[in-house]
Amino acid sequence: MAVYLDDWRQPATLGPVADRWSHLVADTDSELHEFALRLGMRREWFQHKVHRPHQAHYDVPERVRARAVELGAVPISWREMGRMLRRRREATPAVGGESGR
Q1: What confidence tier does 17 reach under pLDDT thresholds 50, 70, 90?
Q2: Are 9 and 23 in contact (CB under 8 A)?
Q3: Domain extents for the chain?
Q4: Closest C-alpha to 68, from 44, 39, 46
Q5: Does the pLDDT value for residue 38 go beyond 70?
Q6: Is the entire prediction scored with pTM above 0.70?
Q7: Residue 39 contacts by C-beta under 8 Å, 6 or more apart in sequence?
């Protein structure tokens, strides 16, 4: 089991926070939630869609990035993240009649 942090670093303002944002994902949602809690993130920040479970993630601001890695998140490129999410999508059974794509 592992938690991954990509290097997307997209500039954006989410709520009151203007920063550069990356994506935090894990092998399982429970592992992702546990890690996010240790990082000080709130559960309502979890991003997921019923029809796209392979994309479940938390957005992580740049100022928290070093702490995430310190706690054990594995830094990966955004391209590696994309490949991982594509493999997950292809391995995920269709939900609600959708093909998973």
Answers
A1: very high
A2: no
A3: 3-91
A4: 39
A5: yes
A6: yes
A7: 24, 60, 64, 67, 68, 71
